[in-house]
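Journal club prep — side note

Before the paper discussion, L.F. wants everyone to see what a predicted structure for a comparable chain looks like in token form. Sequence:
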Amino acid sequence: MFAREDQPIAAIATAPGRGAVGIVRVSARSVQPVIDALCGRPLRPREATYLPFRAADGSPIDQGLAIHFPAPHSYTGEDVLELQAHGGPVVLQLLLARCLEAGAAMGLRLAEPGEFTRRAFLNDKIDLAQAEAIADLIDASTEAAARSASRSLAGEFSREVHQLRDALVHLRMLVEATLDFPEEEIDFLRQADAQGQLTRLQETLAAVLRRARQGALLREGIKVVIAGQPNAGKSSLLNALAGAELAIVTPIPGTTRDVVSQTIQIEGVPVHVVDTAGLRESQDVVERIGIERAWGQIAQADAVLFLHDLTRAGEAAYQAADEVLQQQLRERVPASLTVLQLWNKADAVDTAQVPAEGLRLSARTGDGLQDLRRRLLELAGWQATSEGVYIARERHLQALRRVDAHLAEADAHLAGEAPALDLLAEELRLAQNALNEITGEFSADDLLGVIFSSFCIGK
């Protein structure tokens, strides 16, 4: 839980560790007592001033830049003071301690994680989707994810949500007017083309939901597990996809005994690739633990790359073991889990054929890897034309899906010979509430706590 929102707060706003520059940030209704104590002179608004930061006895703690952002033209909407000093941990801790000391009389305290951004939200500087985009921009693992988060921070996602809401409010107004004045001869709904408005709403929502799914992919990525019998080339495939020697590769069966993972990107989409122990019956205690971990990773995957060895495809024992593993896959993982059948070591076999649903490749030479990357993007649902995609989270997708469901129910109520206007109005109201959850205009306090507590301190 966050402490009282009207209390002054202070924190180090840069990442832990040593750096050229570090920032201490203070936010309060008035930061003048801290300015007087540390700077000893007035600061012009939004103008960087180079000066010494003073300790209580007047001695300099450090020299740097002080910037005063008077309310409401600041990040939080309150008075904000930023002290830019040298980025040593000791220096920044001394500066923070001095700020807390100077602001003790006004109740200045250490900020909690995400509290500066939470105040920006509460003071209407940003909405909830933009606040989440700040954290997503910081955490972005690919260039495409960073650009999409930047678009969300600029308000593109929020603007589309607001446009949907405005259209929804207009339709609600027509329905409520018809309910309030049933004796009127004029059919408000038919005259205003309520059915057409609802259809356009659904079409617009579908486009927003499509772009939001793409944004969620850029943020979360997909988890892909490489599985198969020992010595099928699983570690070689991981190394080939990652472009680095991450996993040990030897001719000895059972070399990989633990999980090895690496995040790569394909057209900007993060793909979390996991190499696992070869699946087989084993008496080795350590290898058996690795095999159980492999099954655990498979159960949590978005897709499984099941690797076959083309050089052993004609061996009866190998085929029998493969069939057993395929049966275990069907029994142990959800039916919705996609399993790609890959036939490796194509460079060592000239004539061997693979099933139509399989993909022939060589982890050693790289042949077939581009087709594999393309298939992975198809599995993820990624579309090549990603311009205009904004970052989105699972909660945004859930809210948009609820809106879609409520609009579908509303359409059913409106399409009947005798429209159930009261039920139609209720579905539209619920759809609007779901939209408002995205931008934070209708949110539970516990949701806000979860969102902002995931931020770093000082943000």
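L.F.'s comment for the group: The chain has 15 helices and twelve strands. Keep this in mind when we get to the figures.
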